[in-house]
Design goal:
Structural class: alpha+beta
Oligomer: single chain
Shape: globular
Order of helices and strands: EEHEEEEEHHEEHEEHEHEHEEEHE
Number of domains: 3
CATH architecture of the largest domain: 2-Layer Sandwich
């Protein structure tokens, strides 16, 4: 029997066998068994509360750090729509943002208000995902500006998450995969709007000079290995940059089907045209195997992989 016929009623939208490749940053992946776009937070909470516990749930954003496998995703995929992308200026350098708001837009709106969240400007994706993975660059991370978030648990409970609840680490958090962040409050240093905007422009130029920004990529494919601090800086003994290990293994520009390790930055995997999720994941595993053989070091994926192969 079709799953959608056994789901709780909603105010939002339920779509059966919704293709996810068009929603994926890398433009790959099979369908969601059911895609749920809630109308508002109460709609999502009520649905989760009534949903049988054996049905898996996966919240997604714009999938800028995600490979959705070709077989698709069983259960319910939750995707927050435009009603969850609000922006509200608070006091003391704080802003309230909806989880579906894009990182870059939040950085720009914050700058207009004289709040420095410039590091978000160059990070692709939405705020919900940025919190989930403690996204960061140039020495700044979401954990540094996170005040609290509102989320819906798999059981349908609306909860407030404080920093001590998040378990932030280097490019990760302890947030359960089936918990959906709906909004967050962030606090950045106060500054002069023009100076913050200039800082963002400089970061964009720096990124364009070293990363394949015009290609379909999820950013860093692998985490920097152990030996790095929580900010990603190398210790004074081993310069263990993932891109360097990949390069030294002769994998700059390596290809598998339509997937390629970028010639410009070998730790960026791109859809060079017509790639499948299997191409991308297979290339990543090939890179891990060859780096292991060359250096005796196990690279850990930074990009999440979900669904059936």
């Amino acid at each position: 029997m079709s799953l959608i016929n056994n789901l709780p009623s909603v105010e939002g939208r339920l779509v059966e066998n919704r293709a996810l490749d068009s929603l994926s940053w890398l433009r790959v992946g099979g369908p969601a068994e059911v895609l749920f776009t809630p109308a508002h937070m109460a709609d999502l909470a009520a649905f989760m509360k009534a949903l049988p516990p054996e049905i898996p749930v996966l919240p997604i954003g714009v999938c800028s750090n995600l490979i959705i496998r070709d077989g698709g995703v069983k259960g319910v995929v939750v995707r927050l729509g435009p009603k969850f992308n609000g922006f509200e200026l608070l006091k003391g350098g704080e802003i309230r943002v909806g989880a579906s708001a894009l990182d870059a837009q939040v950085a720009k709106k914050a700058a207009e208000a004289g709040i420095d969240l410039a590091f978000l400007r160059t990070i692709p994706g939405s705020i919900g995902g940025a919190i989930k993975m403690n996204a960061g660059c140039y020495g700044s991370y979401v954990a540094d500006v996170f005040v609290r978030a509102t989320a819906i648990t798999r059981a349908g409970k609306i909860v407030t998450l404080k920093p001590e609840d998040m378990g932030f680490g280097y490019r990760e958090s302890a947030l359960p995969d089936d918990t959906t962040i709906t909004q967050a409050i962030l606090r950045g240093p106060l500054g002069i709007p023009a100076e913050i905007e200039a800082k963002m422009e400089a970061a964009l130029k720096s990124r364009a000079a070293s990363q394949p920004v015009k290609e379909r990529s999820c950013g860093s494919t692998f985490r920097n290995p152990a030996g790095f601090s929580s900010t990603g800086e190398a210790d004074d003994v081993h310069d263990l940059k993932a891109w360097k290990l990949i390069d030294e293994a002769g994998l700059r520009g390596a290809r598998l089907g339509g997937a390629q390790m970028s010639e410009m930055h070998p730790n960026f995997m791109i859809n060079a045209g017509g790639a499948t999720a299997a191409d991308l994941e297979g290339l990543g595993e090939m890179v891990r195997e060859k780096v292991r053989a060359k250096h005796g070091i196990e690279l850990a994926w930074e990009i999440r992989r979900v669904g059936d192969g």
